[in-house]
Write a structure and sequence with these properties.
The protein is α/β, with parallel strands linked by helices. Helix content is about 45%, strand content about 15%. It contains 9 helices and 8 strands. α4 runs parallel beside α5.
Length: about 280
């Protein structure tokens, strides 16, 4: 039975994804920043699926030290990990992360980057490790990556979200290149426009109207679950999916040079916060 780790699991797509995977058996780790809000979900899944091992992992993607600690605890457990689903995200958020990055960028890309990089040894040891990045069709609104703006806290909220989702796709593609020859495959996807809590920072009237045209969390979870479990994708890597079908992303999302630049910029930014050797976070 496979072992899954999913971020952002107390509500929305993450909760629906965790539920769908728990129904398959194995082990499901619900990673979220609130113990209080997530434990009721953990207990519900344990009750509904007694043959599935359901665990909680405390993580705050807007705090790189928290991400490092969480990933280190997974490594230290000595337990296998087959699939990492980078689902958690924010939209319409102002301000900065604990480490001084623009909040949307820091939460949607930099935190997942650290989590993924530290957990790569476990995923590489799996019979067929998978990394699933929940991106968005909003990536098509990004025209470039303004590196300086990643530390601009209140500027261009819609643009910041689009850029962060572009990064999710670029990172998956760059990982495919770097992991060539291994048993780890990567995927990025658009879950659909889902009535989830990712929109919680938007003004209430806009959110209420918008949700009338959105799909359910359960439908939004279908493509992440497909990428995480489908046997037909076992030898496919670096592709983008929508409605459980492969789809061409925007041209910018296929820019190999930009993908490398993003990886190197992210690595440098994290090193500036966590220090050299942060990937070997075993203590």
């Amino acid at each position: 039975m496979a072992s899954y780790l999913i971020t952002g699991t107390n509500t929305g797509i993450g909760r629906a994804t965790a539920t769908a995977l728990a129904a398959k058996g194995g082990r499901v780790i619900l990673a979220a920043r609130s113990h209080e809000k997530t434990m009721p979900v953990v207990n519900e899944l344990r009750s509904r699926f007694p043959n599935t091992e359901v665990d909680f992992l405390l993580i705050d993607l807007a705090d790189l030290s928290s991400v490092k600690t969480a990933a280190a605890s997974v490594l230290a457990s000595g337990r296998p990990l087959d699939v990492l689903i980078n689902n958690a995200g924010v939209a319409g958020s102002t301000g900065r992360t604990k480490d001084g990055f623009q909040l949307t960028f820091g939460t949607n890309h930099l935190g997942p980057f650290v989590l993924t990089e530290i957990l790569l040894p476990l995923l590489s040891a799996a019979p067929q490790g998978r990394i699933v990045n929940v991106a968005s069709e909003a990536h098509r609104g990004a025209r470039a990556i303004d590196w300086e703006a990643l530390r601009a806290f209140d500027k261009g909220l819609v643009k910041a979200y689009s850029v962060s989702k572009l990064m999710n796709i670029l990172y998956a593609k760059e990982l495919t290149r770097r992991l060539a020859g291994t048993r780890v495959t990567t995927y990025s996807l658009h879950p659909g426009v889902v009535a989830s809590d990712i929109w919680r920072k938007l003004p209430a009237p806009i959110m209420a109207i918008g949700k009338l045209f959105m799909i359910s969390n359960e439908k939004g979870a279908q493509t992440p679950v497909y990428c995480a479990t489908s046997p037909e994708l076992a030898t496919v890597s670096g592709r983008y999916y929508d409605k459980s079908r492969e789809k061409e992303p925007a041209a910018l999302a296929k820019d190999e040079n930009l993908a490398r630049e993003l990886y190197e910029w992210s690595d440098s930014a994290v090193t500036g916060v966590l220090g050299q050797g942060w990937r070997a976070a075993r203590s």
